[in-house]
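Hi support team,

I submitted a single chain yesterday and got back a structure, but I'm not sure I'm reading the token output correctly. Could someone confirm the output below corresponds to the sequence I sent? I've pasted both exactly as they appear in my results page.

Thanks,
R.
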Amino acid sequence: MMKRFVLLIFSISQFLIFATAQTEVSRFVPGTTLEGINYFLPQTALRVTIVAEKYTTTPGELNKYAFRYLRIKDVPTTASTQWAIKTITVEPYGVPDPEKAYSVKVKSKTIAPLVSLTRDGIILSINTEATEEALPALPEDIPAPEPLNAKQYMNQEMLSAGSSTKLAELCAQEIYDIRDSRNALVRGEADNTPKDGEQLRLMLSQLDTQAKALEQLFTGYTQTSTEVFSINYLPTQETEKDVLFRFSPLLGVVDKDDLSGHPIYISIHNTGNLPAKVEVPTEEKKRFSFLQKKPSTEKGIFYNIPARETITVFDVNQTYTTQDCSMGQFGYTEILSTVLFDKNMTTKVTFHQQNGGVKKLEQ
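Hi R., thanks for writing in. Yes, this is the structure output for that exact sequence:
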């Protein structure tokens, strides 16, 4: 299910430490103690939400008399359940990438940055506050309405009928009487036809409900409910046809390994517009130092250049959704130079929580 995040603001030496050295960044090693901040870059996971409708059919207790008394054919004689997919939606969210864990060590003579992290340690911003983005709440299930209770519309003779045959005969006769009364009201021929249009509408509605309740004793009824399912999917590689889950018309959403359902696939492929790494001209390096390629000393703040991917969810009969999404694990990593965060700079950076790319940079 959906994970919710909260904002953690790390305060280091009351956010400001003035001196002459630079902020040092190194690879995060679990268990290592550093006087600084450990953070992750995200990889992009997908929450797949399936809204399915469930149709539950219940036969009427007088179903074998449906044709004899009401001339209705092919009524259900056994209970059954059918499922159908209504919609499928895909929503990206960020999860920590264990291969992209880093530490920012604050040394003396440096302005220590104000860093915002998610609860799971994904970097959100530097020197500015960022609001944690939570996935939207899942849609609510919609239960089926309660079926009509035919006994509420039976007279004493029906309730005391000694056999199914007698009950069917009495119910059928009552249904015909209700139809005659309704027709008389519509034509204005009934003795008690109301002159007020709203009152007439109410009387017709009550007659329709009574007739429907009694007819369901013969025809049965189908209840429709809506159920919501959620699947978390973390792509580790691009794919043309990976089984996301399976769907059974009899059982609904089932596990991807459950062969009782037919497969619902997901494809993820690059759109081909990933920016290439660019060598910055010498005269521009200082001005655009935050775009420089990662140096061997690994000093700076790492961020992702996410790849743009097209995501499609489909089966052999139809496509349920297609959308573009920037994904951190299929791009590459760059560094924001420590020059941007020295004591003479007030650089503010906000990152995309879902993919680790730079969202906004202000100097």
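A quick pointer for reading it: The CA atoms of residues 184 and 243 lie 59 Å apart. Let us know if anything else looks off.

Best,
Support desk
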